[in-house]
From TrEMBL:
Any one GO BP annotation for this protein: phosphorelay signal transduction system
Family matches, as Gene3D superfamilies: 3.40.50.2300
Name this protein carries in UniProt: Stage 0 sporulation protein A homolog
Segments forming domain Response regulatory: 1-39
SUPFAM superfamilies per the UniProt record, alphabetical: CheY-like
Role according to the record: May play the central regulatory role in sporulation. It may be an element of the effector pathway responsible for the activation of sporulation genes in response to nutritional stress. Spo0A may act in concert with spo0H (a sigma factor) to control the expression of some genes that are critical to the sporulation process.
Domain of life: Bacteria
Amino acid sequence: MTANAFAEDVQAALEAGMNAHAAKPTDMRALCATLLSLIKRI
């Protein structure tokens, strides 16, 4: 989770090997959806 929410920050995180990007302030619906999509991959 990061305060960096610009499109280039998201892209940099994904290029660095992160599975997803979650910015602050936290959108709980988006966070839960992201976590569920990652859990389903396991």
